[in-house]
């Protein structure tokens, strides 16, 4: 972090302080709970793009920084959003589709979707996972069959679709060639979520909120221009767009640092027998251990980002930070809830500790050990590609 970047950090911190939407902080990445929250998140996304804090990795002709792009700026933005416990902008899936379009889309597709993503108006969801295809995504079964007019007829079921209930469009993977080896017969599409045959059913999670959905696709007809890139090239397109999501891990480390700070405060206010939890040596030892682990995570994240910015990233770098962040998050939340004692079961009213924050953190934390590749899959990659162990 140079002086110039620290100066940028001050600007971003000030911006986040002034513009972050007034939505109560929650653990993790969550969908809008109602139309008012959605409107606030759209404005937040628009403001971040307009100020140039978001979308820097886009080419200059589409409003990004072009060759002047610096990964550190994305890292700083993510960190400052996490530090303020402000919500993530609504555009997770839109970021993926934007990169798919920038790298593989036609000019008509770019001008149809990119401005709406920048203005926060168009909401996208990611229609990749299926009931039988998550870790092994390439085994997906949703079919897209070519029609005489060049369009496609799409049928299948998707699941865990974040923001599906709000999305205008879906970034979809479907099988176009059932005879080809499983990674080869997949194509990428943009589908209008309001098309006849699309049925979105929100799933209420144990946190009490509905952040993702089941999506049923029943003979959905799309025209030829819904296809991104060429037929059967969807696996490469999906992997390339996922590869643009590197800066997020730094914000996750800051998220845990904030939780450690809050944990100190919590231990200073809740009691264990006749004294504050913080006065108990066992509590202090555990706190120290968790704080040291979060510092180690931070160091690992910066080492990984430094390698990435030099083009020297190793296949196991991101899995190591993802694994450590998500497993540590579960441990911290579990310890916090333990400190809350019986009061940890209530989320409102006079007895609730920190307005139920720790229960929400505890219930959500496990989602991070699954989303974006489960802990077992991360361990497999580290073992096979990092340590050279046999499959
Ligand atoms: C909060 C959240 C948001 C999400 N949002 C989206 C979204 O917007 N769009 C989308 O498409 N998907 C989304 N997902 C889905 C996510 O990508 C999948 O949940 C993830 O890839 C795991 O797949 P699965 O749930 O099918 O589990 P499975 O792959 O069925 O795994 C089940 C268990 O088996 C283990 N396992 C599987 N394979 C192996 C192996 N080879 N070796 C060892 N263990 C293995 C896993 O670790 C896991 O414990 C989201 C998930 C979460 C939790």
UniProtKB/TrEMBL annotation:
<dbReference type="InterPro" id="IPR052161">
    <property type="entry name" value="Mycobact_Acyl-CoA_DH"/>
</dbReference>
<dbReference type="InterPro" id="IPR037069">
    <property type="entry name" value="AcylCoA_DH/ox_N_sf"/>
</dbReference>
<feature type="domain" description="Acyl-CoA dehydrogenase/oxidase C-terminal">
    <location>
        <begin position="232"/>
        <end position="386"/>
    </location>
</feature>
<dbReference type="InterPro" id="IPR036250">
    <property type="entry name" value="AcylCo_DH-like_C"/>
</dbReference>
<dbReference type="GO" id="GO:0050660">
    <property type="term" value="F:flavin adenine dinucleotide binding"/>
</dbReference>
<keyword id="KW-0560">Oxidoreductase</keyword>
<dbReference type="GO" id="GO:0016627">
    <property type="term" value="F:oxidoreductase activity, acting on the CH-CH group of donors"/>
</dbReference>
<protein>
    <submittedName>
        <fullName>Putative acyl-CoA dehydrogenase</fullName>
    </submittedName>
</protein>
<dbReference type="Pfam" id="PF02770">
    <property type="entry name" value="Acyl-CoA_dh_M"/>
</dbReference>
<dbReference type="InterPro" id="IPR013786">
    <property type="entry name" value="AcylCoA_DH/ox_N"/>
</dbReference>
<dbReference type="InterPro" id="IPR009100">
    <property type="entry name" value="AcylCoA_DH/oxidase_NM_dom_sf"/>
</dbReference>
<dbReference type="InterPro" id="IPR006091">
    <property type="entry name" value="Acyl-CoA_Oxase/DH_mid-dom"/>
</dbReference>
<feature type="domain" description="Acyl-CoA oxidase/dehydrogenase middle">
    <location>
        <begin position="125"/>
        <end position="220"/>
    </location>
</feature>
<comment type="similarity">
    <text>Belongs to the acyl-CoA dehydrogenase family.</text>
</comment>
<keyword id="KW-0285">Flavoprotein</keyword>
<feature type="domain" description="Acyl-CoA dehydrogenase/oxidase N-terminal">
    <location>
        <begin position="2"/>
        <end position="121"/>
    </location>
</feature>
<dbReference type="GO" id="GO:0005886">
    <property type="term" value="C:plasma membrane"/>
</dbReference>
<keyword id="KW-0274">FAD</keyword>
<dbReference type="Pfam" id="PF00441">
    <property type="entry name" value="Acyl-CoA_dh_1"/>
</dbReference>
<dbReference type="InterPro" id="IPR046373">
    <property type="entry name" value="Acyl-CoA_Oxase/DH_mid-dom_sf"/>
</dbReference>
<dbReference type="InterPro" id="IPR009075">
    <property type="entry name" value="AcylCo_DH/oxidase_C"/>
</dbReference>
<dbReference type="Pfam" id="PF02771">
    <property type="entry name" value="Acyl-CoA_dh_N"/>
</dbReference>
């Amino acid at each position: 972090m140079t002086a110039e970047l620290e100066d940028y950090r001050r600007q971003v911190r000030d911006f986040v302080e002034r513009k972050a939407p007034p939505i109560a902080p929650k653990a993790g990445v969550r969908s809008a709970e109602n139309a008012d929250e959605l409107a606030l998140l759209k404005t937040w996304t628009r403001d971040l793009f307009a100020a140039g804090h978001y979308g820097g990795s886009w080419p200059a002709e589409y409003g990004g920084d072009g060759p002047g792009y610096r990964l550190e700026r994305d890292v700083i933005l993510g960190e400052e959003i996490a530090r303020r416990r402000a919500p993530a902008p609504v555009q997770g899936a839109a970021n993926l589709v934007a990169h798919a379009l920038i790298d593989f889309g036609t000019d008509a597709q770019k001008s149809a979707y990119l401005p709406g993503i920048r203005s926060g108006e168009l909401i996208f969801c990611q229609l990749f996972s299926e009931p039988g295809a998550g870790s092994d995504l390439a085994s997906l079964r949703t079919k897209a069959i070519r029609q005489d007019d060049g369009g496609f007829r799409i049928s299948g079921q998707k699941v865990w679709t974040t923001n599906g209930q709000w999305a205008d469009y879906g970034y979809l993977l479907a099988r176009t060639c059932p005879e080809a080896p499983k990674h080869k017969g997949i194509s990428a599409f943009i589908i209008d979520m309001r098309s006849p045959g699309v049925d979105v059913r929100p799933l209420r999670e144990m946190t009490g909120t509905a952040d993702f959905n089941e999506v049923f696709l029943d003979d959905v007809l799309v025209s030829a221009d819904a296809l991104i890139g060429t037929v059967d090239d969807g696996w490469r397109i999906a992997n390339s767009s996922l590869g643009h999501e590197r800066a997020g891990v730094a914000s996750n480390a800051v998220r845990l640092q904030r939780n450690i700070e809050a944990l100190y405060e919590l231990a200073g206010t809740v009691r264990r027998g006749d004294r504050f939890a913080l006065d108990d040596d066992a509590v202090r030892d555990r706190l120290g251990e968790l704080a040291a682990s979060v510092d180690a995570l931070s160091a690992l994240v910066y080492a990984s980002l430094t390698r990435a910015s030099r083009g020297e990233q190793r296949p196991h770098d991101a899995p190591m930070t993802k694994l450590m962040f998500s497993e540590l998050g579960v441990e911290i939340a579990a310890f916090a809830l333990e400190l809350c004692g019986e009061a940890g079961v209530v989320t409102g009213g006079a007895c609730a500790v920190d307005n139920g924050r720790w229960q929400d953190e505890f219930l959500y934390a496990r989602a991070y050990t699954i989303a974006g590749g489960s802990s077992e899959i991360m361990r497999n990659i580290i073992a096979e590609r990092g340590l050279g162990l046999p499959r």
